[in-house]
Amino acid sequence: MIENKGRPNRLGLKGWLGGGRWGFERYLYTLHRVTGLGLLTYFVMHIGVTASRAFGESAWVAAMGAVKGPLFSVGEYLVFAAFAFHALNGVRLGLVELGFAIGAPIEPVYPYRTSVDEQRPLAIGVMILAAILAIVGGIGFLN
Amino acid sequence: MRDQELWTWHIGAGAVILVLLGLHMTVMHLEAIVRVFNPAPGEPVDWANVVARGKSVFFLVTYVLLLGTALFHGFYGLRNILFELNPGPATKKTLSGLILVVGLALFVVGTWAAWVGFTVARGA
Amino acid sequence: MADNTSEVVFRIRRFDPTSDAEPHWEDYRFACAPGMTVLEGLKLIKEKLSPTLAWRSSCRMGVCGSCGMFINGRARLACNTQVAELESDLVTVAPLPNFNIIRDLVPDLFPMFQAHLEAQPYIIRDDTAEQQQPSGEYWQSAHQLEQYLQFSYCIKCGCCMAACPTYATDPHYAGPMPLGQAHRYNSDSRDGGFAARKALLSGERGPWRCHFAGECSRVCPKGVDPARAIQLMKRQLVFDYLKLSKQPCPAPIAKPPAGLKRREGIPEAPPRTIT
Hints:
The complex is a heterotrimer. By secondary structure, chain A is an all-alpha fold. Chain A has 6 helices and no strands. Chain B is mainly alpha-helical. In chain B, α3 (57-83) packs antiparallel against α4 (89-123). The model of chain B has no long low-confidence stretch (mean pLDDT 90). Chain C is an alpha+beta fold. Chain C has 2 domains: 6-107, Ubiquitin-like (UB roll) (Roll), CATH 3.10.20; 110-129 and 138-241, Alpha-helical ferredoxin (Fumarate Reductase Iron-sulfur Protein, Chain B, domain 2). In chain C, a hairpin with a 2-residue loop joins β3 and β4 (74-77). Chains in contact: A-B, A-C, B-C. At the A-C interface, α1, α2 and α4 of A face β6, α4, α6, α9 and α10 of C.
């Protein structure tokens, strides 16, 4: 068995962040991760805050008072926008990663039309829907 | 469980969350368009509306379902991200255990709160 | 713009393990001929400017997969990349990332080949006697051929592995090439090895760490589209877990056509020489 030789040369976390020459879907992948982590962080805090309703009205009102204010409103809107992106991109990923919307295997003829190109209309459509949802939700936040 | 099984549940949970969280977002943020889940006047987070939803079996069941699926989906995603950073095998075991414990604890807290809310709202 | 009168600078990542502590960049300036590929540039540098430059290459026409390198920020084959198509007077050439550097532009591709072996990239069937002493072809329709033909064009150059964001941080992930080749065999109707390959595919080394960034398919020089192979394979594995599908039996031996008469004047085949 030949042992691994040579100097390590992994891209590491920089490989996650891309560098300008990557495709649209790669940035969607990074954004999906970031929104997922953001939603999870919010969710854990949300469970804590909303559990206060088990202690009655005064506890609930106190908890709601603690999360009022412009900073929290902006934060909550970001959570909503993150949800809009993550959910709709998740729909795309659910379809694509189960092998739908990426086209059947074909004999490759240059210039190659890959699975990434096949699902590009779906990606664009999903992004437009996410933007619409984020804007519609934003109107509610402004009120 | 093998990743083949966990990932299948992850995608399934995503589909369930799409519906239930979409409903939750509609209740909470699209009350200008859809008002049926906020019968009392005022904000969706006003106590009267919280009680109105709290006493509903539908909301009890869907909240607990949403809680469970979202915790599984979120923490499996977090575990994936952390494991892709290539920790050692002992760290992986520890992380898996920790995530499982924290996830279960949060599920217990959330279900307890929903149940207490349900019984109090029904009693009131 | 590089044209037939201009000079080009190759900025190459040099590393000699016997004398260097760290890799470093070195610049080489020379006149660029029309249609010059990056590989030809490297050969010119070795011939005239730096005889110690090391890299792998062989066919110089994009079929052997030896010369995968990181050229101007993207994994490409050096023989397949013309200097003119880079649209820059500065050509940065680095070894393929996500592999250890043995020397200069030579990556250690062994982990990729090891993962490839784990994917069991060969036809697995029960009828070993038939495979040792074949009596005929295995029957396969044109439609069945289409299901895996695209993935069979892989030349194992490693460009997809260099582009994959998961493989950038996680060496346990098998990578687009081994997983794509596992699917090439799983979807071959002559193969019966789906259960055997699940040892690799159902665990953490399987396709579950792929999140469809799609970079592997974008950089593949042969249009193999490993991303498509991996997503199709995930569907197959999920349906297998949910018991929504059963693996079909491997292709049978094609029966020789019956009721045909040999045309006049065509000689019989010579006797078999293989026993």
